[in-house]
UniProtKB/TrEMBL annotation:
Gene3D superfamilies: Oxidoreductase, molybdopterin-binding domain. It holds the Pfam family Oxidored_molyb. It comes from Streptomyces cadmiisoli. This is Sulfite oxidase-like oxidoreductase. It comes from the Bacteria. InterPro entries: OxRdtase_Mopterin-bd_dom, OxRdtase_Mopterin-bd_sf. Residues 33-181 form the Oxidoreductase molybdopterin-binding domain.
């Protein structure tokens, strides 16, 4: 496709599994609730909350698709203990959104919103990682509806639930607030290399009170 590919440093790093994970061949479908129907004429991506200028930003599907595209080769680690290695994700870097719709200086976290009101909270530093990407493609092909078309967030260094399918927007927050699964017993941070699966594992300061 002629787009730049960003790779992890060293082949060995790409094929190391986090603790408790198993290698998965193929890509299982895992999600909560039905697959939403995509209606391009109604679809929009919003950035709201504590924005730098106090204004909300919106993009239609065509406008969002026209933003600078890149690819990242990265693994996907599901909290259900399977890992899919070396996938090429294509889409819009999260940093691009931060650049064109900057957050206010006191923003510390974001809430990523998806269809049906699903949400996932992230530290701003995780969202701003150079490898975090709003994916539209995997391995050069459009995502299927079951895997998140038209848009899913990929945060390679966290468990996959932290990157929702069917994303519709980002809320900038000046304090942390738990998302859908984080309110239901999953870890507020979700680092697979520390095996942060459940809220009972949280250390002081890793999340707001349940």
């Amino acid at each position: 496709m002629g787009h730049p590919v960003e790779r992890e440093s060293g082949e060995a790093a790409r094929y190391e599994l986090p603790p408790g994970q198993r290698l998965q061949r193929g890509w299982p479908v895992t999600h909560y609730g039905p697959v939403p129907k995509f209606r391009p004429e109604r679809w929009e991506f919003r950035v709201f909350g504590a924005t730098g200028d106090g204004e909300k930003r919106c993009w239609s599907h065509d406008e969002f698709a026209a933003l600078p595209y890149t690819t990242v080769v990265a693994d996907l680690h599901c909290v259900t203990k399977f890992s899919m290695l070396g996938a090429e994700w294509g889409g819009i870097p999260a940093r691009t959104i931060l650049e064109i719709a900057p957050p206010a200086p006191n923003v510390t976290h974001v809430m990523v919103w998806a269809e049906y009101g699903f949400s996932s909270n992230l530290r701003l530093s995780d969202f701003a990682s150079e490898r975090t990407i709003f994916a539209t493609h995997k391995d050069g092909e459009l995502l299927t509806a079951e895997h998140g078309f038209p848009l899913r967030l990929i945060v390679p260094h966290l468990y996959a639930w932290k990157g929702p399918k069917w994303v519709r927007g980002v809320e900038y927050m000046t304090a942390d607030r738990r998302g859908f699964w984080e309110e239901r017993g999953y870890h507020n941070v979700g680092d697979p290399w520390k095996e942060q699966r459940y809220s009972y594992q949280e250390e002081p300061g890793e999340g707001p009170e349940l």
